[in-house]
Amino acid sequence: ALPDAAAEAQVRADDRAHVFHSWSAQGLIDPLPVAAGEGSTFWDYEGNAYLDFSSQLVNLNLGHQHPDLVASIQQQAGRLATIQPAIASDVRGELARLIAEVAPDGFEKVFFTNGGAEANEYAVRMARQVTGRRKVLSMYRSYHGSTSTAISLTGDPRRWANDPSDIGAVRFFGPYLYRSPFHSETLEQESERALAHLEQTILLEGPSTIAAIIIETVVGTNGVLVPPPGYLQGVRELCDRFGILYIADEVMVGFGRLGEWFGIDAFGARPDLITFAKGVNSGYVPLGGVVISDRVAEFFDRTAFPGGLTYSGHPLACAAGVATFEVFRRDGILERVRDLGERIVEPTLRGWVESHPSVGEVRGRGLFWAVELVRDKETREPLVPFNAAGADAAPMGAFAAAAKKAGVWPFVHFNRTHIAPPLVISEDDLVRGLSVIDEALTVADAYTTS
Ligand code: PLP
Description:
Elements: H1 5-18, E1 34-38, E2 41-44, E3 49-52, H2 55-58, H3 67-79, H4 90-102, E4 107-113, H5 116-131, E5 135-139, H6 148-153, E6 169-172, H7 187-205, E7 210-216, H8 231-242, E8 245-249, H9 264-267, E9 273-276, E10 288-293, H10 294-299, H11 315-330, H12 333-355, E11 359-365, E12 368-376, E13 381-382, H13 394-405, E14 408-409, E15 411-413, E16 416-419, H14 427-445
Parallel strand pairs: 3-14, 5-6, 5-7, 7-8, 8-9
Antiparallel strand pairs: 1-2, 2-3, 4-10, 9-10, 11-12, 12-13, 12-16, 15-16
Helix pairs in contact: 3-11, 4-11, 7-8, 12-14, 13-14
Bound molecules: pyridoxal-5'-phosphate.
């Protein structure tokens, strides 16, 4: 029944009058009313279709209205819609077992939360309990969520107005060869120097005061920063040396985004705690959690864990999680992510570095890539300044508008666009969407100075 101007007007009016939105000055926004979604596409009320290249905040790994996920929630709602967390529930236990089976050896237990920020909150709380220490180290270029400890650990500017809600947060520079804080020229140098910097940070902060280091396995919103060879191994070695726990934040990259169950599998990393959310059930019902190594879990065998949530392991959310495992295995999702990433996304994006004056670097893995836009390839001056807003951000706004007009909804953050479609996107749609982005980049090219 599209287009439907009356319905659109009602949705917009209710939203503008009553919905208080995240991260926004409420009087300056005009959220798009969305009427429907199916697979990798969603529609507005005018009947315009958008191919979703951002998976709704890098969340919707199995796409809109996946029949298996929808059915699993419907069936669970018909059986037992909710049950409190102190009870043993079949779907909660089944999902925890499935997660433990794909986690590294030595991870058997899962604490469920309602999302990613809470997962990080609880991982940090566990680390503080186990070590008896308070500080937590995190990267400047990071996002860990918006609750009080999670936003304090976050490095990106969303922290600024909230700082310091958790006084134990200490930040450091992670590896980022394209804009190396360490003047490195090779990945090997970047890895070594970033580790030396982290070691210095630990020594100067006082190793005996540090409970944990939290790292997004591939830094997500802040740049799709892939760790250089040896970096995450080096973090493990520093943690072992100083009795610090290593928390892998897999909220964005877990459950298939990199073509692995967990991103750590791609890099041979060995954390003590793994946090997840989003892709575990594509956000159909809010769910996140912490996968707990035996070493941490054993601490709580005789000591009570001081924390809990009414909705921990909600049956509807867990049912969608169990269905996610079935779909991933039946449809070979991890294999197709690796295949599409290597065969289509990577070569196409590498070509853009040659063909577009505005494309300074591309990087990523699986179906998770960043295209970093610059004014000048020599100086690497970003196409828009760090944390640009309003008129300063106009070139990125123009790029995004061109992509949307041509039917692709892009992910844009500062001077980057990320390629993060649902993992079920058809090959045809992927190729079509990439060609729309390719064309929209000519809009960005017009702002270059070289
Ligand atoms: N950690 C990472 C790496 C994320 O990307 C996000 C959200 O984008 C979060 C944590 C916070 O998750 P949530 O929004 O579910 O609280």
